[in-house]
Amino acid sequence: MKKILVTGGAGYIGSHTVVELHQAGYQPIIVDDFSNSQESVLAGLESILGMAVPTHRIDCADEAALRGVFAAEGDIAGVIHFAAYKAVGESVQKPLAYFRNNVGSLLTLLAVMPEFGVENLVFSSSCTVYGIPDALPVTEATPTKPASSPYGRTKQMCEDIVHDVSAAPNNTLRTILLRYFNPIGAHESARIGELPLGVPNNLVPFITQTAAGIREKLTINGNDYDTVDGTNVRDYIHVVDLAKAHITAVQRLLDRKASETVETFNVGTGQGNSVLEVVHAFEQASGQKLNYSIGPRRPGDVPAIYADATKAAQVLGFKTETSLVDSLASAWKWQQTL
């Protein structure tokens, strides 16, 4: 059973990927400092998998601690690197924390991996690397423009670092960069899902918390964008679909099928939905009427972005399976179990 190290494995996307790795016959190993995740996730994973997942509680940017994990685990076949802060709005408020954590953890990982002969990396990137694109949908060949937030800039920098390391002489690293769009929803068991600490930065947990009465109302950040109804447009992908893309990417690396040392794929549905469309789809999925109002725009927000998912379908054989309404229904089921 091949070991796959999952940094940030107790986080939202990480935990769902741990489940899919296990079900695909891999042994996931979690590395997480729980600064942005909760201990209860481990119990949720254990109840789904029927076993505890080996977990190392360290900061991924701590080189000595990370080296200790690689030494303790022995033969690691590959790494999926999620460990990063991920809130666009927060990154505008705390840019230094984002650079230190997001860029620092990758630098540490890239320093340690070759010491232990680990050559395969799946990197958690983001559609924010495209900045404000000139045309939609974005393909992998769409030029990356200046990021509209420090978060987006960290992802651009990390991609650049991976390319530079891969171009160095004697490099053995092989990387797949997965540019995510907007993950939503929860595992069908409702034992793991999105667990924001404090006030949610993402739309869907704010919707579900409002419907559950935890929040008084949802404030929609701006309705004067040049979009179908004036609200931001995003590509919302079910988190389990996104997790499965990582399994496909890991398998491609292990099978040595990658055509280049660094390959890049958009992971989205290929369809854009506005914030208001998501609100109405949630009302349809849950039978709840949502209390919302329109507020000012939020710094760092791109008006609209959604994926051209053709390359992932043709090269990885990956396509999303879950509709927006079903994704939101799973998020509501998760909220009700909390």
Characterise this structure.
There is one protein chain. With 338 residues, this protein is α/β, with parallel strands linked by helices. It has 2 domains: 214 residues, Rossmann fold (3-Layer(aba) Sandwich); 85 residues, UDP-galactose 4-epimerase, domain 1 (Alpha-Beta Complex), CATH 3.90.25. The chain is 39% helix and 17% strand. Helix 1 packs parallel to helix 2 and helix 3 runs parallel beside helix 5. The radius of gyration is 19 Å and the shape is globular. 50% of the residues are buried.
Descriptive terms for the model:
UDP-galactose 4-epimerase, domain 1, 2 domains, Rossmann fold, 39% helix, single chain, seven-stranded parallel sheet, alpha/beta
Q: Please identify which CATH superfamily of the largest domain we are dealing with.
A: NAD(P)-binding Rossmann-like Domain
Weakly predicted, low-confidence segments: none
Morphology call: globular
Spatial gap, N to C terminus: 33 Å
Family: Belongs to the NAD(P)-dependent epimerase/dehydratase family.
Pathway: Carbohydrate metabolism; galactose metabolism
Pfam families: GDP_Man_Dehyd
Domain NAD(P)-binding: 5-325
Brief overview:
It catalyses: UDP-alpha-D-glucose = UDP-alpha-D-galactose. Belongs to the NAD(P)-dependent epimerase/dehydratase family. The protein has 338 residues and is of the alpha/beta class.
